[in-house]
Specification:
The structure is a single chain. The protein is an all-alpha fold and 89 residues long. The protein has helices at residues 13-29, 33-46, 55-68, 70-77. The two termini are 33 Å apart.
């Protein structure tokens, strides 16, 4: 498996994993307690399968996940905190 080069620091898989966990913990902490409980309940019920939850639970799941702002979290985890930039032509 080829690992992407991270500028400015020596790559260590555990550092990347730690940064990911810290980032997700920060975003998880922004959710209201009731939403955290509901998200955990729906995920347990689904057992990782989208079809194990009804339409109302899916809507609730998507509503809560949007609050996690995963796109911003992903951008923060990319090298140099900006990641891929558009090329100017």
């Amino acid at each position: 498996m080829r690992v992407p080069r991270v500028p400015g620091r020596k790559f260590a898989p555990w550092i990347l994993a730690l940064e990911t966990v810290m980032m997700m913990r920060e975003h998880w902490g922004r959710l209201p307690v009731d939403d955290r409980r509901e998200l955990a309940r729906i995920l347990r019920k689904s057992q990782g399968r989208y079809t194990n939850v009804n339409a109302d639970e899916r809507r609730e799941l998507f509503r809560i996940v949007r609050q996690l702002d995963l796109i911003t979290a992903g951008r923060k985890l990319m090298p140099m905190h900006g990641g891929v930039r558009k090329r100017h032509r």
